[in-house]
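Quick one, T. Sequence first:
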Amino acid sequence: MSEQNSESMPAEGIPLVQHRARILRFVRLALAIGLVAIVIALLWQQETRQQFVTSLTSLSITAMTGVLLLFILMRIAQAFSFKHALELSNRIIAFDASLALVGIKGLFNLGFVGLGLAAQTAHGKIAHHVPVRIMIHANLTQLFLLVVALGLGLIAGIILLPHASDIPGSMTFLLIGAGCAAMGLAGTVACIFPSCSVWLNRIPGVQHLRLGMERPHGEPLRSLLLIACFQATTVVTRVTRVLVIAWSISPDADFQTLAMSVLIADTVGVVPVTPGGIGLRELLIGMLGAAADQYEVFLAAAVIDRMAAIVLNLVHGALATWQSGSESRTNQ
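Structure tokens:
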């Protein structure tokens, strides 16, 4: 009787799970549209609109080149991180293949939440014969180490930067940073040690995949340290991009508060509330900028950074999709 129940329950539960997933996607899309509408409405206010137009026209070639180079550096770091994350399960792919898979994820992340991971996983399976569970395991390992990097960055920023205490709720964000670092470390341990991998398989949506590290290629500790370094590089480049834009439009901007605002927004954005964190990141940075009386500058810098990221993700993603498609046809 128990065997019959265990066999029938998954089949009966599939429509309910799919229904809930569709509702969740709709809610997230509606939230993204709402947040984008709020940001547009804030930019449409006369004073803010004038500041935004002035910011766009005052962007220097040096700043735009800097943003491009930082985006390229971030992509390189993400590609190396993903390559080493796959090596933890003894799956070896070339750097250019890893770079293409990262680009595909970035492109499709502009759509529905989770679409980037689904597209990357599909391309990885078709073009490079990497099983779905290993692709997801690699992404989870990177995500947990990214959370560690963001948490430690928040802690270091609030403790070391003189103006960080001026941010409203700075002590709360300090505790959030400590919590993120602890949870990210616990998740990393679950990804690496077979005795702890049972916790991974309690994550909704992946219970059936039996996630866990397989026989690693090389030293797993070395791979973990490299992934952590590359994820930290990703955090630094995302923060620096906004700082470069702010420096170009307002050299007198409060860069310490802006850096902390970006860190806080990126930490909150780890939970995929909207596709790519669109709307939420810009709104948070703008609101935190109000504490430094530089609301317009912070919001303009965040929106311009988002516009640049969308364009660069579209370009790199299109090239990566074409490359991955060519590799898939070659392997057939």
